[in-house]
Design a protein that fits this description.
Elements (H helix, E strand, L loop, with lengths): L5 E7 L6 E7 L5 E6 L6 E8 L6 E7 L6
Antiparallel strand pairs: 1-2, 3-4, 4-5
């Protein structure tokens, strides 16, 4: 993990609509991962798209456990 590649993003839980800050590590490249909601503990699916050229975050998608991202 590279601290300069960490970005904070304001997001909302797709289950309970709670707003929270999500830290995204762009140094890992494009990937999918899971994060639990800090309020309702539901599993949130994350799709992180990172530019292969610049290494910058291009998009961040959140979905429910049964969503197809």
């Amino acid at each position: 993990m590279h601290e300069e590649a960490l970005d904070n993003h304001a997001v909302r839980c797709p289950y309970c609509d709670t707003a929270f800050e999500l830290q995204v590590d762009a140094s890992q490249g494009s990937h999918e991962t899971w994060e639990d909601c800090p309020r309702c503990c539901a599993p949130i699916q994350l799709r992180i798209e990172v530019s292969p050229v610049s290494g910058e975050l291009e998009s961040l998608s959140l979905g429910r456990d049964d969503d197809v991202l």
